[in-house]
Design a protein that fits this description.
The complex is a heterodimer. Chain A is mostly helical. Chain A has helices spanning 2-22, 25-43, 45-49, 74-97, 105-124, 128-147, 153-184, 189-194, 202-216, 225-228, 234-243, 247-260, 264-285, 291-312, 315-346, 357-360, 362-376, 382-394, 399-427, 443-461, 467-474, 494-512, 514-518, 528-550, 555-576, 593-607, 613-633, 637-658, 674-699, 706-719, 724-732, 734-760, 766-776; strands spanning 55-61, 66-71. In chain A, strands 1-2 form a two-stranded antiparallel ribbon. In chain A, strand 1 and strand 2 form a beta hairpin. In chain A, helix 4 packs parallel to helix 15 and helix 31 (724-732) crosses helix 32 (734-760). Chain A is elongated and about 115 Å long. Residues 762-787 of chain A have low confidence and may be disordered. By secondary structure, chain B is mainly α. Chain B has one domain. Chain B contains 20 helices and two strands. Chain B has a two-stranded antiparallel ribbon with strand order 1-2. The longest helix of chain B is centred in the middle third of the chain and has 32 residues, at 157-188. Classes of the chains: A mainly alpha, B mainly alpha.
Chain lengths: 787, 512
């Protein structure tokens, strides 16, 4: 199984090269992979049906739960029939549909085969992570196939919407699956289903998973991406947006339903949104003039129907559900392919411009009629068989099921009406419209339509061909199987009567053209498409406003925030840690420290008040000398010497540099404005905080650190230096010194290259820089830069 | 074997000196640069295999036993990051040579690019390998000093202004770093990373957690955690693409590495970690919202960078083996992918002559190869399977779910939302720049700077370097199995700490 998936991917990788050689033939080559898969799946059907369920695993990164596990069971087999069968059909069809010499063939064929492989992986996946991987791959394929070359705005918008909406669901599904796996202790779906976890986060997890299913299967209110995606080439729509990808949501729900069908967090959202989707989709379909969009809304409606049936959670509804999944795949692909022929041959798919195609293309019309009747649930077609089962399944007498039945009937009436609208619209003759000129529909393409259409007919008469597969899925529910079989004729039963009523009412609705009259029902403002637009715009605006507010562009603000964080975070840690052990505090070791400390603090305080550059530099010097003097008081004469030397040198250099600057800082406004107070406050608090930390931390240690002791004891013997500081710098920790020398070298090189760059070209003067600074900053503060 | 630990630092240091001397010969400079970085990558492979098999490799400088001298230590984490960094710096160097920014100023003998770049690499290597807090400060200084030179090579008003934001914020972080070292020494009497845990454990709970959070602030500035990130999007995007690539891809990760190293080796897990989870959440969300608001390609990528630093803090704050393994995977993935994206942005800008998303169009049609070079890392960044970002993200999400506290759930959910918004942002780039009609290249807005843009063409070196990085990111995904296993072993080492301490201090726990 994994080999089959991999084969798709490998083939997809070489298709662009094949397309360069053989042009449209690449599609036929691409069809080989799904066709072979179909043959293999059917020939091994016994494995799935006899409950052997072969499983294959490929480890990727098992430590973090990444592995590919494929499991072949009844539901997987059914989905493969659709995914690979219709996949091969659509690829062959595309070979006739594409224009000769079309440059997009390489890309589209590769993406379609990639998609077929991903879909195959999705329906076979037996662990939650592989499920998500393939799920997201189908989303990306859909984005690229819908967007094509992205030449028009409409293409770009539709592709983006499809991507974002389905990714929203996909990611929430991922979170849900991870929560579910975490709650059950395994990532294997079969194991989760065999022993479903309960309580705790499980309801949240299933709702998150459902979100994924709803977005992928275009349920209200996420559905608008699907009609939008109809800008894609028609074969793409037939495959992705009718037969395969949009079924992924239904598949997901069907996969997990046997375990969670009793959980209200599971079935309530499914049946409520499903019914809503079924009715709304059918209603919208009645108002479309574009055949393809009409089918898209029809698909939305049918997907809602399928959701409701899974949500109902009985054995017969489960059987009805998978029957209709198959039926829908067959008739909807046939109809999309029909629209493709109409569009390609006549250049339009607008109902108002088409006339007389029925008599021109009788064979195609016959096939399309079969498909439409199956869609409307008219005997003797597979759609009818499925719908009979659905009605039977909902006729339990339970009020909930009766309510569901009422909703399903309403939706089905719409379905009958839009089916007729499609059939008559596409093939009928309008007296007011000139007969559409069209070349023959083409034998090959018509055959492609015929295969699924005829299958709908054959399977209706011989449901036993597929019934083991379908009933096999229904048997996975923890419910006793009733004595019910799929059949065209169950006798004169209530479901048959209801079917008849639906068909009659649908015909009446179509004749009365009720829909346009009801068009004012739903206010435009409430439409889901506006919801999407508002969400995206709100996100854009919100992001802009938040970022605009935070990203002030002012260096002083950034520094202030950093200092505040430096106080708040460790401060909170200090307070949260409980009482500290007492520290012995001494005010000073020597009385000389007091005047020196006052001097240093006073100088540091006044430096921010200085208006002249020279004053500021001199005051900074005072701070440095003061600290040097403190070293002397502590007995570190050599350290003090170094400090004095550095201070003096810096001062001299500064004085030389400052001669070139204006004497005063540019800011001539009054000093004590609010912003300045805030800054002074932050600086004072940050400084005090560090001082407090220093006192507290020094108190936590007793005596001389062992490293200090080691240095003092060994300096002379090990290094020959009588000065411990020297010994540390040039021997014990010489590697630090190498590093610092490297830093100096870098700084010197940098300065040199700046000067050389200046020599080469006239630099912007510093005064000009100052001015840009002053005007750019919102609060009028200036950034002083000293280097 | 122990000498190998010093070589990734000493080789580029000496090569930088030689390169400075050989300033007149571009060919010698190039050979030195490429040769040394290739050698570091090779050494990193050897170190990685050795540490994985036999435990940490330790070098005591000058023969003074820890904790008295300076110790260099290579363990699984540092060897792995050394390897990834060497590959990225190598690719960026080849790109820079291809883009010819290395030759900027050559006519005036300002040949500082190669020596400064090698210095930067020496600083990065030292930061990974040092086992000493003060030496880590020296590593940061080397790294930052050379980065100051690299970012200020062109002196227009806008560039100087943007680089001043960078320089001043970095100096502030250095100031806080040295303050923190003083505090650590005051409290414990040692700066040796292996000796610290025992000393720290004796301190009061309040002192311990305030020290831990002080370190978060110090390294958080470099790593650009919210709310200490503002400087990054304001300064990085103005530099040429390869400089931004190495700053954004690498220097922030050195901050993250320092966070991981200090927090796991030195501090125990306690209630303050909730604070870190909240910071992680804020970083993710505020960063990605910032990205959505941008129209400038490089600024958008810078905000995305900030956002994804949040993922790394998330895994660290969970403080479980799976969480830390996720962080290591994420760091490895993100260094590669973020650098690749900035390089691709450099190629795009070279073609189109603009960084404005609104001003570019149809890049995919005009240059299909560039589209592939962008799409793969962009999908990876957004965490789309089966790329490297997905692998790392899955590990983090599972770790978050496994911890299972309300805050952990909230951050896990935030990580998922960030993932979606990241996809939204990169889709914006794709739709805006790559789709649509092919646009004529814009004229170079500043013909005298080191980057020539708007040529409608690219150089082979740029493509090879970017392609190489993209290939590395794909390989990370392909070999996710062994890599994840290695990350898990590294994470277990970090949480346990025993192997590291024994390797450095000896089995009896220290002394001579």
């Amino acid at each position: 199984m994994l080999t089959a998936i991999a084969a798709h991917f490998v083939l997809a990788a070489v298709l662009p090269l094949i397309a360069r050689r053989w042009g449209r033939g690449a599609f036929v080559v691409g069809a080989v992979a799904p066709a072979l898969t179909l043959v293999l799946a059917v020939s091994h059907a016994d494995d799935a049906l006899a409950a052997r369920h072969p499983t294959e695993t490929l480890a990727w990164a098992p430590g973090i739960g990444l592995e590919f596990t494929a499991r072949f069971d009844e539901l997987a087999l059914l989905m493969i029939l659709l995914v690979s069968g219709i996949g091969a059909l659509v690829l062959c069809y595309y070979a006739c549909y594409a224009k000769p010499g079309d440059r997009a063939v390489g890309r589209d064929s590769a993406l379609l085969v990639l998609f077929a492989g991903s879909m195959l992986g999705l329906v076979l996946a037996d662990d939650v992570i592989s499920l998500y991987i393939f799920w997201e791959l189908t989303t990306v394929c859909s984005f690229l196939l819908v967007g094509g070359d992205g030449l028009t705005k409409k293409l770009r918008k539709s592709a983006t919407q499809a991507l974002l909406v389905t990714s929203l669901g996909g990611l929430s599904m991922l979170l849900g699956l991870i929560l579910l796996a975490s709650a059950s202790g395994t990532t294997r779906i079969s194991e989760i289903l065999a022993d479903p976890p309960g309580g705790g986060v499980v309801p949240i997890a299933v709702v998150l998973i459902l979100l994924g299913a709803f977005t992928k299967s275009a349920q209200v209110p996420f559905h608008p991406w699907l009609p939008g995606a109809m800008v894609a080439p028609t074969p793409v729509s037939a495959y992705l947006h009718a037969a395969a990808m949009v079924k992924a949501g239904v598949y997901l729900v069907a996969r997990f339903a046997p375990a969670f069908s009793d959980l209200p967090a599971w079935w309530v959202p499914i049946v409520v949104l499903g019914l809503w989707t079924m009715v709304l989709g059918g209603f919208r379909a009645l108002r479309q003039h574009d055949l393809k969009t009409l089918l898209a809304y029809g698909t939305i409606s049918q997907l809602g129907f399928l959701m409701v049936l899974v949500g109902a959670g009985t054995w017969i509804t489960a059987l009805a559900d998978v029957t209709l999944v198959l039926a829908h795949g067959l008739f909807k692909s046939a109809l999309f392919l029909t629209v493709g022929i109409i569009d390609k041959r006549t250049g339009t798919r607008d109902i108002r411009e088409l006339s007389g195609l029925g008599s021109r293309w009788p064979v195609l019309t016959a096939f399309a009629t079969l498909a439409v009747l199956s869609m409307a649930g008219v005997p003797p077609l597979l759609g009818f068989v499925g719908k009979e089962a659905a009605i039977e399944g909902l006729l339990t007498g339970d009020p909930k099921d009766l309510a569901l039945l009422a909703g399903v009937m309403l939706g089905s009436v719409f379905t009958v009406a839009y089916s007729l609208r499609f059939l008559v619209g596409a093939f009928g003759t309008r007296p007011t419209v000139a007969p559409t000129k069209a070349p023959p529909s083409g034998v090959a393409m018509t055959t492609m339509v015929g295969i699924p259409a005829v299958a709908s007919l054959v399977l209706a008469f011989a449901p036993w061909i597929v019934e083991p597969v379908l009933a096999g899925y229904a048997d996975t529910y923890p419910l006793p199987a009733p004595d019910y079989h799929l059949a065209l004729w169950h006798g004169l039963t209530l479901p048959l009567l209801i079917s008849a009523v639906i068909i009659a009412a649908g015909y009446a609705m179509y004749r009365a053209s009720l829909a346009p009259k009801l068009a004012g029902w739903i206010p435009e403002r409430m439409s889901a498409q506006n919801g999407y637009r508002a969400a995206v715009m709100g996100l854009d605006r919100g992001a802009l406003s938040i970022t605009g507010r935070l990203q002030a562009g002012s260096l002083p603000t950034y520094l202030g925030i950093i200092l505040v964080t430096m106080v708040v975070l460790p401060g909170a840690g200090l307070l949260a840690g409980g009482p500290l052990s007492p520290t012995e505090l001494r005010a000073w070791d020597s009385w000389m420290q007091l005047p020196l400390a006052v001097l240093v603090l006073a100088a540091a305080g006044t430096v921010v008040l200085a208006r002249r550059r020279l004053t500021a530099v001199l005051l900074t010097g005072v701070v440095g000398y003061g600290i040097g003097a403190l070293f002397i008081v502590d007995g570190g004469a050599d350290l003090a010497l170094a400090q004095f030397l550095v201070e003096s040198l810096t001062l001299v250099v500064f004085v030389f540099v400052i001669r070139r600057f204006p004497p005063r800082f540019v800011d001539a406004r009054p000093y004590f404005r609010r912003a300045r107070w805030v800054k002074a406050g932050i600086a004072a608090v940050a400084g005090t905080f560090v001082a407090v930390l220093a006192v507290l931390y020094s108190g936590s240690r007793d005596g001389l650190p062992e490293a200090s002791r080691f240095y003092i004891e060994n300096a002379e013997s090990a290094t020959g230096a009588s000065n411990v500081v020297n010994a540390i710098i040039v021997d014990f920790r010489a590697f630090d010194t190498i590093g610092e020398i490297a830093v100096l070298a870098v700084a010197a090189t940098g300065a040199a290259s700046l000067i050389l760059a200046r020599a080469r070209q006239r630099p912007p003067s510093l005064a000009a820089l100052d001015e840009t600074d002053g005007t750019d900053e919102t609060d009028g503060e200036r950034t002083e830069v000293k280097r | 074997m122990t000498v190998l630990v010093a070589l990734p630092v000493l080789l580029p240091l000496f090569a930088a000196a030689l390169s400075l001397i050989a300033g007149r010969s571009p060919r010698v400079q190039r050979l030195l640069g490429v040769g040394v970085l290739t050698a570091i990558a090779a050494i990193a492979v050897v170190l990685l295999l050795e540490t994985d098999r036999n435990g940490p490799v330790v070098l005591q400088f000058g023969g003074y036993a820890a904790p008295f001298g300076i110790t260099l230590v290579a363990d699984r984490l540092s060897a792995l990051l050394l390897l990834v960094s060497a590959l990225v710096t190598l690719a960026v160097l080849i790109f820079s040579i291809g883009q010819r920014i290395t030759d900027y100023g050559r006519q005036t003998a300002s040949t500082a690019f190669h020596p400064m770049y090698l210095m930067l690499c020496a600083g990065v290597s030292l930061a990974y390998l040092t086992g000493d807090l003060f030496n880590l400060f020296v590593a940061f200084e080397i790294m930052l000093a050379s980065s100051y030179v690299l970012i200020t090579r062109r002196t227009t008003a806008a560039r100087v202004r943007a680089s001043m934001t960078y320089v001043i914020v970095s100096l502030t972080s250095s100031l806080l770093f040295i303050t923190m070292i003083a505090l650590v020494y005051a409290a414990t009497g040692t700066v040796n990373l292996a000796a610290l845990p025992a000393k720290i454990a004796e301190l009061d709970a309040g002192v311990q957690s305030s020290l831990a959070l002080f370190m978060v602030v110090v390294f958080g500035i470099k790593a650009a955690l919210v709310p200490m990130h503002f400087w990054l999007p304001d300064s990085y995007p103005t530099a040429p693409a390869p400089i931004t690539a190495v700053f954004a891809g690498l220097l922030t990760k050195v901050g993250v590495y320092a966070l991981i190293r200090t927090q796991t080796l030195v501090f125990i897990h306690d209630a303050s970690w909730t604070v870190l989870l909240v910071i992680a959440m804020l970083t993710m969300i505020i960063g990605v919202l910032g990205a959505i608001a941008q129209n400038d390609l490089n600024r958008m990528l810078s905000f995305l960078l900030v956002s994804h630093i949040g993922y790394m803090l998330f895994g660290l704050a969970l403080f479980t083996v799976l969480g830390l393994a996720g962080v290591i995977l994420y760091v490895v993935h993100h260094i590669t992918v973020q650098a690749a994206l900035f390089l691709t942005s450099g190629i795009i800008t070279r073609h189109t002559g603009t960084v404005s998303l609104q001003a570019m169009s149809g890049v995919a049609k005009a240059y299909p190869l560039v589209a592939v070079l962008f799409a793969l890392p962009a999908l990876s960044l957004a965490g789309i399977p089966p790329f490297s970002g997905f692998v790392a993200k899955i590990a983090l999400l599972q770790a978050g779910a496994a911890v299972g506290t309300p805050v952990a759930y909230a951050v896990t959910a935030a990580a998922v939302v960030t993932s979606l918004l990241t996809l939204f942002a990169v889709t914006k780039i794709w739709v805006g720049a790559f789709w649509g009609k092919v646009a004529e290249p814009h004229a170079d807005p500043d013909p005298t700077d080191e980057v020539t843009v708007g040529t409608g063409s690219t150089s082979k070196g740029m493509l090879v370097a970017t392609g190489g990085l993209v290939a590395v990111s794909v390989l990370i995904a392909v070999f996710a199995g062994p890599l994840a296993a290695m990350s898990e072993r590294a994470a277990a080492d970090l949480l346990d700490g025993g192997a590291y301490q024994t390797a450095v201090l000896g089995a009896d726990g220290g002394g001579r």
